[in-house]
Amino acid sequence: SYQIAVEKFPKFRRAWKNMSLIYVRQGRLEEALPGLTRVIELGGSDAITYGLLGYAYSSVENHISAESAYRMAILLDPKTLDWKMGLARSLFKQERYAEAASLCGQLIENHPDRSDLWLLQANAYIGLNQPVKAAEIYELVNHLGQATVASLNMLGDIYINEELYDMAVESYIGALEKDPEKSTDRTIRSAKVLSARGAYEETRKLVETVEGLRKDQLSEDQRKDLLKLKARLAVADGSDEEEVQVLQQIVELDPLDGEALILLGQHSSRTGDMEKAEFYYERAANIEKFEADAKVRHAQLLVKSGKYDEALPLLRRAQQVKPRDNVQEYLEQVERVSKNR
Fold first, then answer.
1. Domains in the chain, please, with CATH?
2. Predicted pLDDT at 1
3. Is the pTM of the predicted complex or chain greater than 0.85?
4. Hey, how many other C-beta atoms are within 10 angstroms of the C-beta on 18?
5. What DSSP character marks residue 146?
6. pLDDT at site 81
7. Which range is least confidently modeled, 56-60, 188-192, 277-281?
8. How far apart, in Å, are the Cα atoms of 267 and each of 154, 270, 318, 324?
9. How big is the chain by its Cα radius of gyration, in Å?
10. φ, ψ of residue 164 in degrees (nearest 5)
11. Residues 6+ apart with CB under 8 A from 282
């Protein structure tokens, strides 16, 4: 084998090179590095060796060495696009975004059909905090029919930040349709962002699309997330009854979902069913992660009913578990009212 050959004859350059090429073909790039370096030390300074050395260095995240190797490859062979692409990627990985964008621009002039060049340039513009420029490129790639799941999701994120919510949804749906299985979690996260921005119609469209494409393949956590989004939409629509039904479905799926229990408690409080509200808050308080919030809500309910002395221990416990300035102020107010009665 070549390994035996280089051990016996350490200056046998062709054996070093062939052994390195085998490693590269097998994807064992880190193992290829010593051999490629040795070939160059022994005078084998050709473009392919330098180019593969750049590729191997990139695979181990040594982007400065990768840049040097790619530059040497380009010097010896200025026509091969792969070396220039490698250089652009190594500049990008070093966060030298302006240089990466500029080099991509030069390469695009000669290779306008290469979507990987366009996408790398768009990502560099994101790094330069020029999202609108990036969006133009992502749209162009989309029109070329070469958009990726990542580029469509990134385009959606840009549109959200620009408050173009309907366009954001179209991008997210495009990503979901390209790869429903891998994109579901990402799409649900995007729906949560839209909901938090008050873009309820767009949230609804995204939720319905996820359910339509993935209904039978959703995990329990994904179903819960979608139900919570539906509950928020029901609140936004003023549909109390629908909100309760959705929240109850969540609790059926997961009896330890403290967020849903607290929301059910708030709903019961709004509708004047204090006993049921207390029941939900007490259940939520038994879940460690939600104890503090549940006890504060419960205390607020008691204060509303004038039961200050019963509210105080709950607020003190909430502060023990999760100290917060606003809760401390509220606790002190309740203490003052309780003393003055």
1. 1-91 (1.25.40.10), 255-341 (1.25.40.10)
2. 61
3. no
4. 16
5. -
6. 94
7. 56-60
8. 37, 5, 21, 24
9. 30
10. -100, 70
11. 294, 298
